UniProtKB/TrEMBL annotation:
Domain of life assignment: Bacteria
Phylogenetic classification of the source organism: Bacteria, Bacillati, Chloroflexota, Chloroflexia, Chloroflexales
Protein keywords: Lyase
Matches recorded under InterPro entries: Fumarylacetoacetase-like_C, Fumarylacetoacetase_C_sf, Hydratase-Decarb/MhpD_sf
Record protein name field: 2-hydroxypenta-2,4-dienoate hydratase
Cross-referenced SUPFAM superfamilies: FAH (SSF56529)
Keyword Transmembrane helix: no
Gene Ontology cellular-component terms listed: cytoplasm
Domain Fumarylacetoacetase-like C-terminal as annotated: residue spans: 109-263
């Protein structure tokens, strides 16, 4: 028997359920189980409605995130394709002198991952955007630490769960923007993430769908299919370069990327 279309009332109720979990800091059962949400298109409708709820309360969009680009993270999360979410300014933690702090109490079950951030300099709004066009439209790049977090209990997510949950967005910090990084081979650029002084995970740019610019091209084309171009001024974090690391209060993470100054994030 074919699935019945999910009504706007149900979409609104599920978005509000996620919003309450975010605001009041509690986890909920997977939407794939509790509400039978199984397809990506419906999950993106929930994500969009949730973002609109937050925008109505003064939230600001600073860009987009690509999730589940690394095979290591896909295997961790039990999914097999990328997704995207929205970067909300209220969870951007500036790195002052390369050091950022995030209040641990605002998260539920945070993990961190190292990524490459793109600062889009030209709006990408045409068919079949290529990685080369992404690089040509990029103003600068930077090392970034993303905090991923889930409102879904014990990270028991399927693809539709994490999409609806804004691609498991928790927060982020970004290092210094570099125009010189545009001419680097992003596919082979290396990264080390240390956890409390010890190297914990290692990765390369190729972990993000084979090339970070390929991941951003996937995002640009996917967004455009929904009538949303990647715009000049958007920040895009292009996907984890290694497996995520669970975080606890007091933990210190340091991301070192070839040719870039290190950035650190401490949970306080």
């Amino acid at each position: 028997m074919p699935e019945q279309p999910v009504t706007e009332a149900v979409i609104a109720e599920l978005a509000q359920r996620l919003d309450r979990a975010w605001e009041e800091r509690f986890t909920i059962a997977p939407l794939t189980e509790s509400a039978g949400i199984s397809d990506a298109a419906t999950a993106y409708r929930i994500q969009t409605h949730w973002t609109e709820l937050r925008l109505g309360r003064g939230e600001r969009i600073i860009g987009r995130k690509i999730g589940l680009t690394s095979k290591a993270v896909q295997e961790q999360m039990g999914v097999n394709e990328p997704d995207y979410g929205t970067l909300w300014a209220s969870r951007y933690f500036p790195a002052v002198g390369g050091r950022a702090e995030a209040p641990f109490e605002v998260f539920l079950q945070p993990r961190v991952e190292g990524e490459i951030a793109f600062l889009i300099g030209e709006t990408l709004d045409w068919p079949d955007i290529t990685p080369q066009q992404v690089l040509a439209a990029t103003e600068a790049l930077a090392a970034a630490i993303e905090i991923v977090d889930s409102r879904i209990e014990r990270w028991r997510i399927k693809l539709a769960d994490t999409i609806a949950d804004n691609a498991s967005y928790g927060g982020l910090t970004i290092g210094a923007w570099s125009k010189a990084l545009r001419s680097s081979d992003l596919r082979t650029i290396g990264m080390v993430m240390s956890h409390n002084g010890r190297p914990a995970v290692f990765g390369t740019g190729a972990a993000a769908l084979g090339h970070p610019a390929l991941a951003v091209a996937w995002l640009a084309n996917t967004l455009r299919s929904f009538g949303i171009p990647l715009r000049a001024g958007d920040i895009v974090i292009s996907g984890a370069l290694a497996a995520t690391i669970p975080a606890q209060r007091g933990d210190l993470f340091v991301l070192e990327m070839h040719g870039q100054p290190p950035i650190s994030l401490r949970f306080v």
